[in-house]
Design brief:
Elements lengths: L5 E4 L10 H8 L3 H10 L3 H8 L4 H11 L4 H5 L16 H10 L4 E5 L3 H7 L11 E4 H4 L6 H11 L6 E5 L2 H9 L3 E4 L3 H10 L7
Parallel strand pairs: 1-2, 1-4, 2-3, 4-5
Protein name: HAD family phosphatase
Organism: Alterisphingorhabdus coralli
InterPro entries: HAD-like_sf, HAD-SF_hydro_IA, HAD_sf
Amino acid sequence: MTEISNVIFDVGNVLYQWDIRALYGKLIDDPERLDWFLDNVVTLEWHFQHDAGRELAPMVAELVAEWPEERELIEAYVPRWLETIPGPVPGSLALVEELHAREVPIFGITNFGVEFWAMFRPTAPIFDLFGDIIVSGAEKMMKPDPRIYQLAQRRFKVDPSATLFIDDRQDNVDSARACGFVGHQFQNADALRAELESHDLLGRR
């Protein structure tokens, strides 16, 4: 079994919480209307177009044309998007700092649109500790597409069998494993700490 010497992190809901409801819960008081709005108007599927490489302006314009009565709420999404990130996932950033202190090479693969990444990245200095981060919107390919893991292997110059990939989605982990990476489905920081310790990447407490 190859010794693990590199770590690749997902970002959303591994390092930082992300939830569209965190924004729109402030703007829509009625819980039933909030659920309807997130199920039908500003949906995850609509947002993921940006992660895949689409620009925000035409996405917003198309959605307003489809739901003109919801214009005000739709147009709040981009300028207030940082409010969809309530904060770091408890305990995760400390693990990154500990890995960095032990000189473990750290990388990222994130499904993230380029415009939102440009807004978010300056608020998150933890990424200064990363060797490189692949952003799906810039590459126009998203996890779990195998090509994004193949790109990571080339760009990060890592041996997949010596690299632990961490993601909260099982399909993303499965695809990484199929490309030769060692995978861990993130549940919480304590479980991840145990995984990292099992590979001797962290000092045991």
